[in-house]
Amino acid sequence: MTNKVVLYTDGACKGNPGPGGWGVVLRYGDAVKMLHGGELNTTNNRMELMAAIKGLGSLKRKCEVDLYTDSQYVRKGITEWLANWKKNGWKTAAKKPVKNGDLWRALDEEVQRHLVNWHWVRGHSGVPDNELADELANRGVEELSA
User: Fold this and answer.
1) What is the mean pLDDT of residues 30-42?
2) pLDDT number for residue 46
3) pLDDT of 1 over the 60 cut
4) CA-to-CA distance for 136 and 59, rounded, in angstroms?
């Protein structure tokens, strides 16, 4: 597979719950695409998930993706917890419904279309594309009140 894409994703929320935004920086060779959006009443975790969903969903064909997130919730959820949730009928080990199950299902569907390598990056640590994804997520929040 030669379509190698790098995605940086981030979410933001003013209050939790409250107005939230998501941001994506997508790099393919020299091309850069930036995406963002928001929701009026949401949580930071939902916006982190939405960023990954929207980033992967923007890819038009099967790609190898290096996806960078500063959310341990997203990275651990997709790499450690998801298989058991699916096996247990989308229930946690405590037999409770998985929080944000709708978005986890959507993310799982997007991931099936690609070969995704998941990476965690410390937020607000000066990684340029992570900082840019954060700016885009905050722009998504700001545009809700404009």
Assistant:
1) 97
2) 98
3) no
4) 18
Amino acid identity at 99: K
What tokens does 8 get? 């940086």
Separation of alpha carbons 130 and 95, rounded Å: 35
Active site residues: 10-11, 48, 70, 124, 134
Average the pLDDT over 107-135 and give the result.
96
Would you state the pLDDT for residue 2? 60
> Crossing angle for the helix pair 101-112 and 44-57, nearest 10 degrees?
20
pLDDT on residue 117: 97
List the strands of the sheet with 64-69, edge to edge: 31-42, 18-28, 4-13, 64-69, 115-120
Q: Identify residue 30 by its one-letter amino acid code.
A: D
Strand duo 4-13 + 18-28: pairing: antiparallel
For 37-44, what is the mean pLDDT?
97
- Could you give the dihedral angle defined by the CA atoms of residues 121, 124, 129 and 132, in that order, rounded to the nearest 10 degrees? 140
What's the chain's length in residues?
146
CATH code at 4-144: 3.30.420.10
List Cβ neighbours of 124 (8 Å cut-off, separation of 6 or more): 70, 131, 134
